[in-house]
Amino acid sequence: MPVTIVRHSTGIAGLDLALDGGFPPGTRIIIFGDPLSGLELLAEQFWKAGDPIGTYLMLDTAPKEGMIDAQGMDRATLARAMQGDRIIVDSLSTLILEWGIGAAARFVLEDTRETIERGANIVYLLYTDLHSSIEEARMMRAADIFITLRRQIRGNEIERTLAIEKFKEANVPQQVIPYHIIVDGLELSTTRRVI
């Protein structure tokens, strides 16, 4: 009899649909995009979708209500601060720039191993155009799930698409998904055009 894995909702109905119910427990997720792509909104939606909500570690700016100011924390302190099933590290880019790629990769793969083994999801935000190709590749390899948010200006419109580019031990969806940024966060299109 097959074992049913209860997934953690992403907080976004269209993304849950694309991921067959959400993120599998015990996964490292990297959301990759530019600062205007909405990756912080996606992270917040996931963080707030749980009961109780998990830990949002803010490294880049002043934290909002409920978030933890993690600026200046070392690897051990940052790992100990990770409580709950839904953890956000905003951002992995800051860790790479401050610690170097080697220490950041060890943090993702080794220092957080206990958190992953207890079934938590850790979402890391990685910003485009800040890192070398080698640094990006190391982080892509460390992730269990890798999601890219793209934003392009076409004429007088902004086109936003989401692509699930890596999904360890699962089928990777073969299409990009259009999305919109609304007041409450990201909203994914769940309909397809038939031509």
Low-confidence stretches: none
Beta strands, count: 9
Number of domains: 1
Radius of gyration: 16 Å
Task: Quickly count the helices.
Answer: 7
CATH level 1 class label: Alpha Beta
Mean pLDDT: 93
Largest sheet: 9 strands, mixed
CATH topology: Rossmann fold
CATH superfamily: P-loop containing nucleotide triphosphate hydrolases
The helix/strand series, from N terminus to C terminus, equals HEHEEHEHHHEHEEEE
- Give the termini separation: 40 Å
Can you give a write-up of this model?
This protein is an alpha/beta fold. It has a single domain, classed as Rossmann fold (3-Layer(aba) Sandwich), CATH 3.40.50.300. The chain contains 7 helices and 9 strands. The protein has helices spanning 13-18, 39-48, 75-80, 92-99, 101-111, 113-117, 133-142; strands at 28-33, 55-58, 68-69, 86-90, 121-127, 145-154, 157-167, 177-182, 185-188. Strands 3-2-4-5-1-6-7-8-9 form a 9-stranded mixed β-sheet, with helices on both faces. Strand 8 (177-182) and strand 9 (185-188) form a beta hairpin. The longest helix has 11 residues, at 101-111. The termini are far apart.
